[in-house]
Design goal:
Radius of gyration: 14 Å
Structural class: mainly beta
Strand content: 25-35%
Strand order of the largest sheet: 1-3-2
Distance between the termini: 30 Å
Shape: globular
Helix content: under 10%
Largest sheet: 3 strands, antiparallel
Length: about 100
């Protein structure tokens, strides 16, 4: 399959054989098998190929002042994921966002 990133909703941990092939935000690790996933199935921006560089935004609470570089203030931490995606050797950088809403 020729994809570079995936915007996922209601994620859980992928099969073991796929984990090394995928990269996701260092701020949102895969859920462990012991974590009650029915409580937290976050959306994710996932890097699938080596043809792009992905710089994720860290989510911070709004009452912590002005967000820093690569931070975004959100009222519901974990309900979205955002990153700047830079194609390597082609195209312009762009921002990818996935948001969970009920």
């Amino acid at each position: 399959m020729d994809i570079d990133i995936a915007l996922l909703q209601e994620t859980c941990s992928p099969p073991e054989e796929l984990r090394d092939a995928l990269e996701l935000s260092p701020y949102k690790p895969w859920l462990s098998e012991t974590y009650p996933i029915r409580y937290m199935r976050p959306p994710r921006v996932v890097r699938v190929s080596n043809r792009v560089k992905v710089d994720w935004y860290q989510q911070v609470e709004p009452d912590r002042g002005t967000p820093g570089t690569r931070q975004v203030a959100v009222s519901g931490i974990g309900l979205s994921d955002a990153a700047v995606v830079t194609p390597l050797g082609w195209g312009e950088p762009f921002t990818a966002v996935t948001v969970y809403a009920a």
